Amino acid sequence: MGSDGGEAGGGGALHGLRIADFSRVLAGPYATMLLADLGAEVIKVERPGTGDETRQWRPPADEQGTSTYFLGVNRNKRSVTLDLASEADRERARALIAGSDVLVENFRPGTMERLGLGHAELRDRHPRLVYCSISGFGTGGGAALPGYDLLVQAVGGLMSVTGEPGGEPVKTGVALVDVITGLHAALGIMAALRHRDATGEGQLVEVSLLGSLLSAMVNQASGYAVAGVVPGRMGNAHPSIAPYETFPTADRPLALAVGNDTQFAALAAALGVPRLAADDRFRTNPGRVAHRAELAGLLGERLRSAGADHWSGVLLAAGVPAGPVNTLDEAFSFAHRLGLPGIVTVPDPSEAEAEARTGAGPSALRKSSRQVAHPIALSASPARYRLPPPALGEHTEEILGRPDFGDHSDQAP
């Protein structure tokens, strides 16, 4: 594996793994950030002058004017600028790849091949390289299609099941397909590395936005694959469970996630209407699904008598999954109250060194960055926050000037 490049803090489950990251926007950068949090050294290759498109996606921005979109998926990375239209910089890219364990790219299919950086060409030179290619619609008939999350949500069926019955199709509030694809890419990379550990052989990992979405449609996709059911929009209701949706209360909506008959009986008792659990229409889940509208009316009548926080406390105490519909600030506050790491501050090591030399106060940490915490807790090798998101080309001279730059000894057969 590649060296750690002397990263401050070091360590982590993936310490010693080097990733040449040619990806941009969201799916690829999210995958490589997760791996970087776990100790991998990620070198982000960007176009000179503009860099990753998300650097310009603002507002919102931080105090320095940097896009929070970019900041959200690029910590623990170093930025190198290379003009891949230049043969000299393509040679530098090849040297970077030669010293890396993993390459990640999400250019339109065929782009890396035209640059002489495709998997087939690199495989012969570096047989241990794990090459992860992320596309919108694969490398076959969909190769020329632009891979944007909104487009995939539309053509991939997600929007057809999102929104109110009879209303317009609605996209999710975040680029969920990109995020899911990033997770699949990270999983594929780790599986390929495990195979390489066992055999010494690298391989091509291909992940598409459309394929990831179809897999992530889980029960809806299975309903079609197995039973030929084409689902539609149901608002916040669930096609197979009831009550499993939001209900109005005296102030704001309350989510009820009643997954079995025992929970429903507890719900009916807590609401003061135990007779509902004995009603033949509602006694079993299939019955509740069949009489969803009648049940929702009866529950809503009772829930409107108090606020969401009141009912949440009452129902959770009775063992009924329930909670208010929070805004994002309320969601982070909730996580904090539960002891979950919602937001962390990532200091800039170079600024910390300057503070130590000059005796300046914490204000010297101008590039410290507030970040959303890594979601995986590992007891022995937890995620580490070593570097804030990089400025464009911030580490070009450092990386290209390394004595081990281009060292491909670990990639030998």
TrEMBL record:
Compositionally biased tracts (Basic and acidic residues): 394-413
SUPFAM superfamilies: CoA-transferase family III (CaiB/BaiF)
Keywords: Transferase
InterPro entries given in the database record: CoA-transferase_III_domain, CoA-Trfase_fam_III, CoA-Trfase_III_dom3_sf, CoA-Trfase_III_dom_1_sf
Key word Metal-binding present: no
Molecular function terms from GO: transferase activity
Family matches, as Gene3D superfamilies: Crotonobetainyl-coa:carnitine coa-transferase, domain 1 (3.40.50.10540), formyl-coa transferase, domain 3 (3.30.1540.10)
Region (Disordered): 351-413
Pfam families (UniProt xref): CoA_transf_3
Ranges in coiled-coil conformation: none
Protein's name according to its UniProt entry: CaiB/BaiF CoA transferase family protein
